[in-house]
Each structure stands twice: as structure tokens, then as C-alpha cells.
Amino acid sequence: MIDDILNQIKDGKLSVEDAKKQLNSFENLGFAKVDHNRKERTGFPEVIYGEGKTPEQIISIIKAMQSRNDDVLATRVSKEKADVILQQLPECSYSEIARVLYWKEDKPLQTKEDRYIAIICAGTSDLAVAEEAALTAELFGSRVHRIYDVGVAGLHRLLHHLEEIQGATVSVVIAGMEGALASVVGGLVSHPVIAVPTSVGYGANLQGISTLLAMLNSCSSGTSVVNIDNGFGGAYNAVMIDRIARGMAID
Amino acid sequence: MIDDILNQIKDGKLSVEDAKKQLNSFENLGFAKVDHNRKERTGFPEVIYGEGKTPEQIISIIKAMQSRNDDVLATRVSKEKADVILQQLPECSYSEIARVLYWKEDKPLQTKEDRYIAIICAGTSDLAVAEEAALTAELFGSRVHRIYDVGVAGLHRLLHHLEEIQGATVSVVIAGMEGALASVVGGLVSHPVIAVPTSVGYGANLQGISTLLAMLNSCSSGTSVVNIDNGFGGAYNAVMIDRIARGMAID
Amino acid sequence: MIDDILNQIKDGKLSVEDAKKQLNSFENLGFAKVDHNRKERTGFPEVIYGEGKTPEQIISIIKAMQSRNDDVLATRVSKEKADVILQQLPECSYSEIARVLYWKEDKPLQTKEDRYIAIICAGTSDLAVAEEAALTAELFGSRVHRIYDVGVAGLHRLLHHLEEIQGATVSVVIAGMEGALASVVGGLVSHPVIAVPTSVGYGANLQGISTLLAMLNSCSSGTSVVNIDNGFGGAYNAVMIDRIARGMAID
Amino acid sequence: MIDDILNQIKDGKLSVEDAKKQLNSFENLGFAKVDHNRKERTGFPEVIYGEGKTPEQIISIIKAMQSRNDDVLATRVSKEKADVILQQLPECSYSEIARVLYWKEDKPLQTKEDRYIAIICAGTSDLAVAEEAALTAELFGSRVHRIYDVGVAGLHRLLHHLEEIQGATVSVVIAGMEGALASVVGGLVSHPVIAVPTSVGYGANLQGISTLLAMLNSCSSGTSVVNIDNGFGGAYNAVMIDRIARGMAID
Amino acid sequence: MIDDILNQIKDGKLSVEDAKKQLNSFENLGFAKVDHNRKERTGFPEVIYGEGKTPEQIISIIKAMQSRNDDVLATRVSKEKADVILQQLPECSYSEIARVLYWKEDKPLQTKEDRYIAIICAGTSDLAVAEEAALTAELFGSRVHRIYDVGVAGLHRLLHHLEEIQGATVSVVIAGMEGALASVVGGLVSHPVIAVPTSVGYGANLQGISTLLAMLNSCSSGTSVVNIDNGFGGAYNAVMIDRIARGMAID
Amino acid sequence: MIDDILNQIKDGKLSVEDAKKQLNSFENLGFAKVDHNRKERTGFPEVIYGEGKTPEQIISIIKAMQSRNDDVLATRVSKEKADVILQQLPECSYSEIARVLYWKEDKPLQTKEDRYIAIICAGTSDLAVAEEAALTAELFGSRVHRIYDVGVAGLHRLLHHLEEIQGATVSVVIAGMEGALASVVGGLVSHPVIAVPTSVGYGANLQGISTLLAMLNSCSSGTSVVNIDNGFGGAYNAVMIDRIARGMAID
Amino acid sequence: MIDDILNQIKDGKLSVEDAKKQLNSFENLGFAKVDHNRKERTGFPEVIYGEGKTPEQIISIIKAMQSRNDDVLATRVSKEKADVILQQLPECSYSEIARVLYWKEDKPLQTKEDRYIAIICAGTSDLAVAEEAALTAELFGSRVHRIYDVGVAGLHRLLHHLEEIQGATVSVVIAGMEGALASVVGGLVSHPVIAVPTSVGYGANLQGISTLLAMLNSCSSGTSVVNIDNGFGGAYNAVMIDRIARGMAID
Amino acid sequence: MIDDILNQIKDGKLSVEDAKKQLNSFENLGFAKVDHNRKERTGFPEVIYGEGKTPEQIISIIKAMQSRNDDVLATRVSKEKADVILQQLPECSYSEIARVLYWKEDKPLQTKEDRYIAIICAGTSDLAVAEEAALTAELFGSRVHRIYDVGVAGLHRLLHHLEEIQGATVSVVIAGMEGALASVVGGLVSHPVIAVPTSVGYGANLQGISTLLAMLNSCSSGTSVVNIDNGFGGAYNAVMIDRIARGMAID
């Protein structure tokens, strides 16, 4: 691309002023198209972080995305905001538990792909984060197996799903409290594990810091960690790996 | 005991001055015999905390205890100190891994009692703390089953010992890193679990604080926690429970 | 149990397929019956953690438990939720101070057992956690002595109850602020002490973290700690020990 | 595998006692071969964590691994220990900067695979962790591009390597101080980024905690984090993803 | 000034008592006029910190300042308070996003000075702090270039403004999350950078502490840091430097 | 006192049983009269900590104290609670800023004593804590000089009060933010300084923890610290010292 | 003093230039004599903080002090440094346990004053800090009662000294671990308690931070806290109070 | 500069290939000359961070810099390293207290400029950091006034230097402990203050974290903070501002 521009200058087809403008816009560096056609390039739709945005702001962003035929994914959207948005955009769907609002044009949410991501969570209190992860992965085109309520306090429940977990391409493990589930899963599989600490627990949980620290200290290799309650981020990493597994050309 | 003293005054067998002295010494309050005949009352020998004491100080304490026929248990005794002590007190034994020096007059270390305490540790790096716990329990007269190197990263190793663990009266679980072992054991047994966090791990372990926090947040009921690297304290609690199980009258 | 299954196969009484199913369900490992008949096995009824659950969810869980003749214990139930629940389930009892809702079929709450657990708390602000502990222990079948408002700032109040405290099988010590009560009790008794830090205190209490750290650093051996404000957990540990003392076969 | 065992019992080829032993060893559960033939199953050789082990212990583990024709990777091996080990095992190699000792039978360290992992580090002080990561990845069979000393304080150095970084399958970003490099790389690529915080920095770095927290808060999606200074863990995750990309059957 | 007083005593024009009073009031030390004519001396109007003050209190302070012809700047004024204040003082202006209320007599907010301060922020969530900074700087008489939403996750957006940023006299960089923007800007410019961490982010952001620590550990020299969310303080520092650049005599 | 009891036994005037009771009640130990006649012994009235108590509870405690002719001091009483209480107990006084409710029978609040305690605070935001301290001291019978709004950012204001501060018997310094006022005052006086950190400040104040740590690290000898926002505790210490200065016999 | 100077000017005895110099030296402000004749004014000799100073530096400071007939107190002086200093200044005394070096011209260390300070410490590990406090107090002219090794784990030992403790003018309580001793003493006495946390304890002691936090949260009023291991600071506060009690005019 | 390149292409003076190379090296972006001719552009010589580098590495870097006629500044160079370096490079100077090694070709260290930077430090323990700052500033061409040992515990010493401090263009305030000096100076001057916390202090100083937090919470506007012990960074910021004041064209 730089070649193109420089050759055009040489050939007099491009003024020095215009070339300078293009080079200054850094689109020729390869990372400048993000905003204009992110989906085409990376396969990931734009994502709206709903917290701190008004329903009106979210609606106008969604409309802009729909006009470009982009899929829509908005996280951290409260029930109250969603009600306002859905009145104006009834074609969107909303999951209250996951606080996720989304729209996928003409396409089923579930893929027919054989490979799948295991979304594993410890207890019912982790459901919100787990569903944020699960819906994110599905909207980004991955197949998801939900394996919920399999905390280590009742190990048999987890082992009951062993084969299903081992069959996944990548696991996203969501847990609060002591976060032991990430280590136990990490010790049972030979694929990457993305651990998502949640802010669930009594006093010394420190809003998830204890869980986060525990997961970072996991004795199981092959485990990496994202921020507290960041179900979206956990899924995003998993989808990246799933796409690599499916041989999808991204770059 | 107060009765005795008061009756002796009444009967003129004890002068007011002497009675006052005894009462002032608080021996009549029931908690004053600790120092003079602690072993007889509680069944626990005096324990010497070796850190910060010179070999000479330790030797003189041991001699005093031996002269009272007390068992001797000294924790946190470095190899260097132990060498000096053993030259003068060759009848003592020393465990380098546990940094424990002890002497038990005429008695085998192992009890023939059926009931036992399970000392369970996650990895080889936790061995020092585990052995401090195991020797403490044995010196205090309990039977110990050592179940070592059964961290959750290789869950099958732990499950292999399941029956043995479930058969214990109480478990002491020693682990560093994310400390998940305490939660997993807690979920597998119906007896009390004493968790001992160790200061083993990479950077964000924070010298055991991460493990400590994780264990306190354990999702398994029936688990309580002692201080970091405190193998002695973990064992002390377990022995107390073991004695209750064996119907030993303490009070 | 594995023997049974394998022998049945050998004898042709069980098909390979059925045996595999049973083994896969991990019920043969000894830890699989928890969910189906937990009370029979461990003596502990299921416990409902009320926080984050709707009254309707709690009601349906209680009904399921009642249909199995299980005792019911729900912790962290707010007054508002309890009012809704009691309208539909007037046979249940509710303690507002402890935020505990419970039902014990046809049985008195107090046991006639001689042995008892001492529930000791420092100040009136710790009452909620103390009562959560006391009711938990009583519902699990233990006898409880409540020894309240005996903080170390007025040491004589504590010493006044000395004999009663020393007579217990196990003590649960509940305190906020500097948590000194746990150390002082630990120094006065020769039975296990379970310390429960509470989130009571001025600024540098850090929502109970200061108390928690202080208790973990207790200079008294024989003390272990559970999470902040976790009255239920403290009682659960104490009941386990009390049952061992009473020779109740659990496993 | 369970089928085999059960059928053999049925056919009388296996005694109940022997079957029980095999089942008890949990090899039939699918996760039990780890210790005996881990390399065959997962493609990863056993790894020796050198810290806290004596040279003699390391030597005996290496010999055991060599006798099974396993590759050898020992991390956190100090120069002093390595000198002792290399005298007895001169066939091993040692990298002082990475503190890694390794042996790869008859095979070149570099693979001819086109795909590669980018190991990117911010400054010369991060070299030890970066080389631990790079050698780990190479020993596990991945190709590595080392892109060092490209911290964000001189952004042009990083941008100079832009194409090379974007061409990788996965990036491992190693940085101390404010760890901004992870976010910047995360914003420039569309493949997974594994961030490794290092304990490099002035006072308020808190031995890497500041860097760790910053990386967890990265505004770039697609970034996950491992523990401080854990170059091995970062590489392990990256190799897992690289193998998925190369279509290597693991399970 | 001391000279004046002392000479007046010598000449009998000032009584010892009066001289003592003046010296005691410390106005002769050069730092005592702050309260009486702060604006004349430092060029900075008094600033009202609105948090914790009632609308009535703020109104009376503003009136006092207006009567002295001082400019008025009140920070941290909520919409509710501002509504009350503006009813009584309609001549004031209010920025809801910045929560800043101000009044500048007869003067345009924008200066015609060529030199300018770059106020740079990472994301839309940092806008409130950025606008507090921008308005503060403008009210204090500096020219401001707002360069918003240029977080490092999309580096091209930042580079697009490179020349504008490099042309500033001083930059105020406002960012939450990992705060990498401060380091990146610091590496691109050769003027001072004042970094303002914001409390924007997921769980492990710790209300801005993570960002603060990251910024303090910036690998770019020439960066200093103010308190979390302290847009006012960041601007105040920048204006001081801007005035030095413009050769304004202050002392 | 023990003498008395013992002699009475010897003389047959007291039965053994009664003597035992008295000794068991620990009243003979000298610290048992606290609850019955605390005011007579220590000169300090009982203090009611209002937080977490209902107006009704506070009213009944006050009535009990009034019936014993005790002065009444209740701290942390919200405006809402005070309104309820004052309706029933109109003889009480209430300070809204200090959140203190009190009653002093027939006596003026101000003492005529020459000696005084200096209550010094940095800014208007510290007023609540300062007034809690000032009223506490006055109710306990000390004379108080209020020296408010003398933070170190305008050092001349503080120096203006220098003689007054130096003339006090003891100073209570109340400050938020960086708490520098405690060090500066400590360096200017030769009497004890009690520092009270307040939870006033921007983000990195950490609810007063930063101020607390700063004060503990004060470079001025003669300064000690109480808990965050604990105006009552600061005053209590100061009054103790003031009474010593006034030669009041306490013990 | 200002009067003197000003009158001398008026009378022509002092030139304006000289007066200005004196006033500029701030000696006229009342707080300027500290360095020149601190002992005369405050009764406290200069104190040398030995850490980070060479023996030579300490020697020259001591010589300067001796030439002014000042008492000498140097804290934190290691054995190595002391050996060097004592060779040159054999008239000095050194306490190895307290790491304190001192010289008191012609005067006995012990005062004949009746009033005394109680220096109370919990265990033998706190001895160094306790002795630093005790020697400091004695060198500053106070009488000291040492009450050592009375930790709350053996409450009877503390109660044995009750009368002695209650008889003190002020107590300095030195304790590590959970620091409960400060609260217990605070509850037993009606004089001020200065608490000194020490860095003694297992893992979660956090180098004394846990003890510090616990002491700040003490439920006993009348307790204030100084920095960790700061025996000197604790004694300094106590001596100030003791002097007030003895009616010593300081100002 | 981009213009130049593009015009040369247009004029045929530069081949497309060469232009591309230059543009790819990002020199055309304006921030690419840093490494090759940093001094010319920014006026700042390269700085060598000595920690973690061998003497040999430092020597070779210095030689490279000398060959380019660059000034040399190496920070954090221990005495041992400096001895080795000075043997080979006797033309360099070394300050042991500042741990700074430097070389300034043919030029005096002191500038004749009137404007100056005030380097102010609290105590003798802060000298190392203060001298690192002072030498850095001098080597970068600024004039420095050293105002040392003026901690707030003896406020008169600070006030004695008031005029000198107020006359500076910018102040660098270096303090440990509670860091109050930064606030006090900030309140006395109307120029920017750069605060440098040092890791000097007793236990709760937390290696400078307490000081850092205190400084960030300074109640004086116009103060910004750099990392703990970062004297170099403090000076770097100050020099930037000093150059602006001196009208030096940088960009």
C-alpha cells in the first residue's frame, strides 16, 4: 500500500499534499481500517459497552451498525435500558441474566460447526458472567456447550461432564469464591483454559480480588486469566482460539 | 480448689497472707497451672518456637523440660542450630525437612490408635510445612497418614487416595499457589478440614496471602484456616479434635 | 461398592452397559450421593444461601426439602423476603436478628445432649453473626450456650463466664474491631476455637479484613478462622467437632 | 477403555480384584496417563521447576526422563546448580539469561514450521523472562520470533516490527513497569495476546503487582494474563494455541 | 517589607506593639496575602470544591467572590445543586459533563494565545474528568486543544493527532483502565506530561488504583501524576507550566 | 479488699460459699466496678455508640443513665434518630454537625479551668470529626480551644494561631488528605499530639487509609494516632492527659 | 523575645540589618530554639537515629552533644557500629538487645520519682522494641516498670501484674501477632495507653501491618498507636505525659 | 520532513524503495530520531539505568555515547561498579551518595543561567535521592539550588529558606515518612512542585507507598508526583519546565 502511494507520486498521479494526508492518516500502516470495516477484517462485530451510556446513545450506535449490516452486541445493558431500546428496536433480542442485547441479521445464533467452546461455571451466582460469555461467543459465531453449576465442592458433578469438557477446543471457566474450578479443569484437559474470576463471595473475597489472585496462582499450566466479571473478555479470547482451530483466515 | 483454700483459712490451717498469695497467683481461677504442669492438664507438651532463639537458649529450655519428664517439641529450628543442640543433647531427634527437633522419653513416636489424622499436601514444595504438621501431631500422640503430592492439577492422584482421606477423623490440607486442594478435599469428606496456606508460588502469590484468601473463600463448608506456613498450628487444631474423637478427657 | 458392581457383572446380574453407567456417574466413588440423600449420610440438612435468590425460588426449594422430610435452614434472608415466604409457609420460623429462616419437623430446637458449643461474641454489633451461628448449630442438632457481649475491653465480664466457656466442647468466637476476644478465649480453654471475624468497626477495620488478619495472627494455638461474617461456617465447623465428641457415626 | 475392562471381567479374563485395582488407579477415566506417558498424550514433555530442588534431585529426575526418551525442560535453574548438573550431564544445554536447562534428543531446537509465536518484550530488563518463554516454546516444538526492546516509550521501534508481529499466530508480550506494551500490541493485532507481567520497576511497581493489575485492565480485547515473571506459563499457553493452529491432534 | 516595618520602628513611625502585630500576622513573610487577594498575586481565582457543600453555601461564596470581581470556578457540582444555584445566579455557566460551574466577568473563555495545553483522553468514559480539566485550564486563561477518545487500543487514532499533540506546551493525559495512554504520549513528545488516572474499569481496576500505579510506573520520563479523577489538579499543574512558557510574571 | 474478705472468713463473719461468690465475681480484682459506677471511678460517663442502634434503644439507655445522674454522651447519632429522641427527651442537646447527642445535668458545658485542649482541624470537610472531638472533651469536663481550617496549604493561617496552640496541654489534630497538619503541629509544640485521620479526599485517599499511614509515619516525635474519623477516641485520649495535668486523682 | 529585639531597635541598640537577620532566623517566632538549646526548652536531649549513619558520623554528633553537656541517645545502632563507637567513646553505654547507645553525664539512669511508666510487652520476641522504649524513657528522666512476657495467651500472667499496671501514670504496650494485649490492658486501666505494634509473627502478619490495624481498631477507648517497631516513639509520648503528671513546666 | 522525502521522490532524487525504507523506519513520523540524535532534538542526553547492567556493558555504552560527543549520565551505579568503570574511563566523575556517574565534555557542570530549580529534601536519609535529582538537573543544563534537611518537624528551618524557595522556577521536593514537606512547600509557592516520595521510614511506611499516597493526596494544588525514589524522574520533569521558562526551543 505504501508502494502504491509512493509510485503514484512518482508518476505524478498524486500530489505531495494528498500523499502526505494519506500517510498521516496511518491507514497505510495496516491498522487503520478498524473503525470503518472492522467486521470484514477481524470477523468481530463492534461491541457496545452499555454501562454509562444512555438508551438513546445505544440506540443510535445500533442503528449505525445495522445500516452497515453489522451484527450488534451490547454488554452490561440493564433491564431498564433494554426495555427502552427494545421498544424502538423490536428486532433486537435481550438476555436479562447476561445483561446482553444483540441483533444478528437473518442468521441463527447457533453454528453447525462441530468444534465448540466449553463455558463452565461453578455456581448459580456466576450465571450472569457465564451467560455474558456464552452469548458473546455465539454471536461471534462459535458453538458453545454450557456446563453450569459444577463447583468443586461437589466434584462428582464436574467429573460427570469430563468427556464433554475434554472434547472442547478451549474452555472458559467462570468462578467466584476461591476459584478452584479453574485449576481443577486445567488439570483435566489439554487445551487452553481462560479463567474469569467473579465477584461472588463472603467478606474476604474483596470483590473478586481473592479469586483473581487464586486463579493467577493456578498450579495448572495452560491457564490464563482476564479481569473480574469480564465474561465478554473471556469469550473473546476463546473465540479467537476457536477460529484458529477452524482455520479461519483472519489477517 | 477455691473451696480448699477458703476452708483451710476457716479451719485455721492457712494464714490469710498465704491464702492471699495463692489467690493472687490466680491459680485458683483454673487457668493458672499452664506453666507448671501444662502437660498433665492439657496433654500437650510445651512447644519451643525456635526462630529468634540461640541454640544455647533452646538447650536450656529443653533441659528444664526433660527434668520435668516433659516431651520436647521445638519448631523452626534451622540445621545449623540443630547441629549445635544435638551435640549436647544427642538423645533428641531432628527432622531437617520439617525443621523440627524433638524428644519423646521411652515412647515410640507412632501410636497404635486406629483413628488417624490425614495430613494432605499439594506439592513437594509444601513438604516442609506438611512435615512440621505431621511430626507435631505424632509428638502430641495422634496417628498420622501422610498423603503427599496430590495437587489438583493431577486430580487422579488425589482420588486414588479418596478412601484413605475419607476414613480420617480430621484432615489438615497444606497447599500453596491457589490452594484449591482445600476446597476439593472439603467437598469430598464429611469431617473437619484445617487448611494451611503456604508461601509457595510465583509473584502474585504475595508470600501466601493469595492462598490464604482463596482458602478463606472456600466454597466447601467445614473448612477453617490457620496462618500462612503454620503447620504446627494446623496440627494442633487437628490433634485437639482427634482427642475429642478418642474420648480423651482433657478438662 | 465397586466390589458389588463388579461381582454382579461377573455373575451376569448386571450388563456391562449398566455397570459402565453407574461407574461413570461416580456414585461408586463414595461422594456421589450428596445431592440425593445428603442428610442421611452427613447428618446435615441442605442449606439455602438466601442472598441473591427471590422469595419464590426459596419457597420452591423449601417445599422440595419438606417433601423429603428434610430440615430446612436458609441463611441471609432479609425481613422483606421472609415476610413473603412466611405467608406461604407459616410453619417456618424466622429470626430477624440472625436473618435465618428455618423449619424443623416435629422436633424441638434444643437438644437434651449434655455437651454444648459455646457461641461467644464481643459486642452487641456482632449479634447478627452470632445468632446466625447459634441457630445453625441448634438446627444441626447441637446444644448451644450463648455468651454474648463479653468483649475484652471489660475483661471481668468474660472471666465471669470462664467456667461455662471452659466446659464447652468447642467455642465459636465472634468479634469485630481488633478481634482480641479470640486470642483471649484461646488462651483460657483447652478445646478448639473457631474464630469468626465480623465487619464491625471504624475506618481502618477495612470491612473486617483487619479483624481477620488479627485472628489469623492469634498467639493462641488451637484457633482456626473462617471468612468474615460467616457465622454459618463457624457453626458448621463446630457442629462437626461436637458430633465427633458425641460419638456420632457420620461416614 | 472401561468397556475393555468390564468385558474382560464378564469373559472371566480378568479377576474382580485386578479390575478394581485398574479402576481405582483412575486410568480408565481418561486423565490418568499423565504421569506415565504425558508426552505421548499431550505432546508436552514433563517440566522440572528448579527452584527449591537440589542439583542432585534435578539430575535424578532428568535421568529418569532421558531413560523414557522424554525431552527435558528445567526452569528456574541457577548458574550454580547448572554447573553441577552439566558436569554429570554434559549432553544438556543451559541458558544463563533464561535460567533454563534443557535436552532435546537428536532434534534441532528450531522447527521448520511456517507459523510462529511472537515473543515481544519491552526492555532489556525483561530479557530473562522473555528467554524463559522463548526457550520453552521452542522446546515444545513451536517456532519463535524474538522481538525485544520495543517498549512504548519509543513507539517507532515497536511499529517497525508491526508486520512481523501481525503475522504471528499468537503473541506473548512481556513487560514490567506500567505494562502498556500489552495493550498497544493488543490494539495492533487480531490474534490472541498472552501478557506476562514482570517484576521490573521502581518502588511503586510492588514487585510486579502494578504491572499485573494494569495488564488485567487492558483496554484491548483479546488479551489474557498469566502470573508475574511466569515466562514458562505464557509460552505454555501460546504453544497450546500454536498447536491448535497447526492442526495437531492432541486429545 | 520587613525593612519597611523595621525602619518605621526606628523612625518612631510605628509602635513596637503594632509592628509585632504585623509580623505575627505573617503577612510580611510574603505568603500571607493568599486569602485577601490571591488572584492578584498568583493569577489564579479561588476555587470552590462543591462536594459536601450545600447550594446555599456555594451561592454565598460565589457572591463574595463576585463582589471582589474574582472569576468563579466551582468543581464537583452536581446537576441538582447547579439548578438551584443558576436560578439565583443566572449569569453563571454550568457544564453538566464536567460538573463545573463558573463565571468569568466580561471576558471570553477562549484566549487568543498561540500556545496551548493538550487535554488528551482515552475513552468516552473519561470525558467528565477531561472536561473538568479543560474548563479549569480555560478559566485560568490558557488555550486548550481537546483530543478525546484516542485510547491505545486503536493506536492510529492517537497517531492521527500526533503533530497537534507534539505542538502543545504541556499535555494532560486522562485515562482509566491500564492507563497506557500516558506512557505512549510520554514517548511521543518532548514536553511535560501530567497524567490523571480515572476510576474507569472492570473489577481489578480498584477504583483507579491500578491505573494510578501503572502511570507512576510509566517507562516514559517526563511524566508526573496527580490523584485519581483529579482533572482540576491536572489542569492546575498544566496552567502553571503554560504561564511560565508565556513569560507571565507570577511572583 | 481481698484482705477484708479473707479476714471475714477467718473470723467466721463470712461463709466460704459467700466469699467464693464474691471472689468469682472478680469485683475484688479492681476492675469490676466499671459497669456499676464507672463515672465515680474514672470520671468518664458511659458513652453510647449510636450507629446500629434504634432511637428506642438509645432512649432507654439514656433514661437509665439519667436515673443514675450520669451525664449522657451519644456519638454517631443521625439527624433522623435525634429528632425522635429529642421529642421524648427534650432536655437533651444535639449537634447536627458532630452527630452528637448529650445531656449534662445542671452544669454548664464549659469549664473554668485554665488548661485547655487544642482541637485543630485542617479543612471545613473535617468539621464533623472535629466537633465530635470537641463536644466529647467538653462533656468530659475539659476546656477546649477550637482552631479550625488551618490546613498546611495556607501555612500562615496555622502560624497565626501558633501561640494559642503552643499554650495547650495537649492537641488533637484532625485532618484528611495527606494529613500533613499533624506533622507540622507536632514540630511546633512540645506537648503530646493525638492525630485523627479523616476519610476526606480524592480517589487515592482510600477512605482515610492514606491519611492514617501518613500520620503513623510522621517525622515529628510525640505524635500518636487513633482510628479513621474517630473524633471521640482522639478526645478521650486528650481528656485523660488533661486530667493528669490538672492533678485529678482517677485511680 | 520579639519585644526585646524591637525595643533594642527603637533604642538604637540594634541595627535594622541585624534585627532583620534575627527575625529571619525565626527565633523570634518562638519555635526557633530547637536546634541550639533544645534540651533546655523541652527537657528532651537530641536523639540520633543510627540507621543509615556511619560510626564516624555518629561519633562526631555525640562529641558535639557532649561539648554542649547534652545527654546522648542514639537508637537503631547495630552491635558492629557500637563496637567502633565505644572504642573511641568508652564513657558511653550500649544495650545490644535495645540497639540503643547512650551517655548521661554524672547522673544515675534511674530517677527517684514515685510516678512511673509501665512498659508492657507480650512475648520475648518483642523485647528489642520494649527495651528501646524502656531505655528511652529512662534517659528522658522517667521511672520505668518493665512488665514483660505477659501475652494474652496466658492471661493469668498479665492479671498477676494488674495492680502494678494500674498504678502507672501511662502504659506503653508493645505486642506483635494480633496485638490483643493493647486492648486487654486498655480495658483494665484508666490511664492513657500508647500501643506499639511490632513486626513479629507468621505470614499474614505482613511485617506488623496486621498488628497495627488491630491496635487501631481496639475496642478500648484511651488507646493511641505509633508506628511499627517504634519503641522510641512510644516512649517519647509516654514521657511527655509523665512530665505533665509530674508538673514539669515545659513551655 | 515528510515533505522533503516526498518532494525528493517527485523530483526523482530518491527511489521509491529508499523512500519506503525511510518511511518504514518511522523517521518521517517525527518521533524516530530519538535513538540516533536524541540530544540534538530534545536537549537531553541518553541516560543509562545502571541497575542490572554489568560494568562492561556500561563502559561500552558510555564509549559509544562519547564517540557521538553526547554527555553521559548513568544512574543507580553502585560504588563497586563505578570503581571498575572509572579505571577504564578516568575522565568520568562519580557521586557515591547519588550513585550517579557522569561525563560532560569540556563544560562546567554549573550553568550561569539566573533561573534555578530548587531541590528540597526533608532529612539526611533522603540525600541519595536528592543528589540523584540535583546532578541530573545540572547535567541537563539547569542551575540547581540545594535546600536540604528542612523537614516539617522543624518548620523554622524551612521558613528560613522561604525566599530562596519562592524564587525558583520549579521545585523538586524529596521526602520520606509522611511526605508533608511537599504539601507545605506547595502551599508556600506559586510555581509547580514535583514531589518525589522516598522509601525512608519505619514499618508502616511500606517502602515508600505511604509517602506516595500522602503526596498524591496533597491538599496543595500545583503538585504532581513521580515514582518512589525516582530522583532522576523528578529532575527530568523539572528540567523540562525550566527549559520552557528559559525559552529554549525544543521541538
Task: Please provide a written account of the structure.
The structure is a homooctamer of 251-residue chains. Helices cover 42% and strands 15% of the residues of chain A. By secondary structure, chain A is of the alpha/beta class. Chain A folds into 2 domains: 2-103, no CATH class; 117-245, Rossmann fold, CATH 3.40.50. In chain A, the strands form 2 sheets. The first copy, chain A, has a 5-stranded parallel sheet, sandwiched between helices. Chain A is globular and about 70 Å long. The model of chain A is unreliable at 23-37 (pLDDT under 50).
Brief write-up:
Chains A, B, C, D, E, F, G, H: InterPro entries: P2CMN_synthase_LarB, PurE_dom. Chains A, B, C, D, E, F, G, H: This is Nickel pincer cofactor biosynthesis protein LarB. Chain A is built from eleven helices and nine strands.
Set down the secondary structure blueprint.
8 copies of one chain form a homooctamer.
Chain A lengths: L1 H9 L5 H9 L9 H9 L4 E3 L5 H13 L4 E4 L3 H10 L4 E3 L4 E4 L13 E5 L5 H13 L4 E4 L7 H6 L1 H5 L3 E6 L4 H9 L4 E5 L11 H8 L6 E3 L5 H15 L6
Parallel strand pairs in A: 1-2, 5-6, 5-7, 7-8, 8-9
Antiparallel strand pairs in A: 2-4, 3-4
Weakly predicted, low-confidence segments of chain A: 23-37
What multimeric state do the chains show?
homooctamer
C-alpha end-to-end distance of chain A: 15 Å
Task: Report the mean per-residue pLDDT of chain A as an integer.
Answer: 82
Radius of gyration of chain A: 21 Å
CATH third-level topology of the largest domain in chain A: Rossmann fold
The first-level CATH class of the largest domain in chain A is given as Alpha Beta
* Strand arrangement in the largest pleated sheet of chain A: 6-5-7-8-9
Q: What summary fits the major beta sheet of chain A?
A: 5 strands, parallel
Task: Indicate the overall shape of chain A.
Answer: globular
Give the helix level of chain A as a range of percent: 40-55%
Protein name (chains A, B, C, D, E, F, G, H): Nickel pincer cofactor biosynthesis protein LarB
GO molecular function, one term (chains A, B, C, D, E, F, G, H): hydrolase activity
Pfam families (chains A, B, C, D, E, F, G, H): AIRC (PF00731)
InterPro entries (chains A, B, C, D, E, F, G, H): P2CMN_synthase_LarB, PurE_dom
